[in-house]
Specification:
By secondary structure, this protein is α+β, with helices and mostly antiparallel strands. 60% of the residues lie in helices and 10% in strands. Helix 2 runs antiparallel to helix 3 (60-71) and helix 4 crosses helix 6 (120-131). The longest helix is centred in the last third of the chain and has 19 residues, at 135-153. It is globular, with a radius of gyration of 20 Å.
């Protein structure tokens, strides 16, 4: 009985396929991927930022159909290991900044190295080579977009925003905000049309 169960379990594991998807950075993107997988008749165990896990096999025709459907939304399946690693790095940063309220207890470099099991210098060099921007600048851009979002929601004050996003003070946050947007926090709050970039464009 034990052997039978073990073999069945092993068979199931071997028929799960992980897909890595470029530009899949938001909840809306996840919904798009779920919808397109269902249209093609593919079952999935989960769909998360940057990846999806398919249950069973995917035929070449189905894969081509999925690629075409996703490309219409600016999403792309990836096979190249280095590109996948870069997208994983992006996904971790986006999830950390936009979808996690708890502060990380280590530096970003240590956090990424631990999560991805790669030396940070290698990750940083690869990221810059593939994207043309440093990991640090990518991280800061997303932090600024998160600040904009929290200002628009107007549920917490600037001191709480600074603490949440690991700024040492409101002054530190304000200086960085102006550097990236050209506006002070007060000027941005006074705008009637507070422009924000989509996560795909940050």
């Amino acid at each position: 009985m034990f052997i039978s169960v073990f073999l069945q379990y092993n068979f199931y594991i071997q028929h799960e396929l992980k897909l890595y998807i470029k530009n899949m950075v938001c909840i809306r993107c996840q919904m798009v991927v779920k919808t397109e997988l269902e249209k093609i008749g593919l079952q999935y165990s989960y769909v998360d930022i940057g990846e999806a896990e398919i249950i069973g096999e995917i035929q070449s025709g189905q894969k081509k159909q999925l690629e075409t459907a996703l490309e219409a939304f600016g999403l792309f399946l990836m096979d190249d290991k280095q590109s996948i690693l870069v997208e994983k790095t992006k996904s971790l940063i986006i999830e950390l900044v936009h979808y996690t309220e708890e502060q990380i207890k280590v530096n970003l470099s240590d956090f990424l190295s631990e999560k991805l099991n790669y030396n940070y210098t290698y990750l940083a060099n690869l990221f810059s080579e593939k994207t043309g921007v440093t990991i640090e600048k990518f991280y800061l851009r997303h932090k600024i977009e998160r600040v904009k979002e929290l200002i628009v929601y107007d549920e917490i004050n600037l001191s709480e925003i600074a603490y949440m996003l690991k700024y040492s003070s409101i002054a530190h946050l304000s200086n960085q905000f102006k550097k990236f947007t050209g506006l002070t926090l007060t000027q941005y709050k006074m705008l009637t049309n507070r422009r924000r970039d989509s996560l795909e464009d940050v």
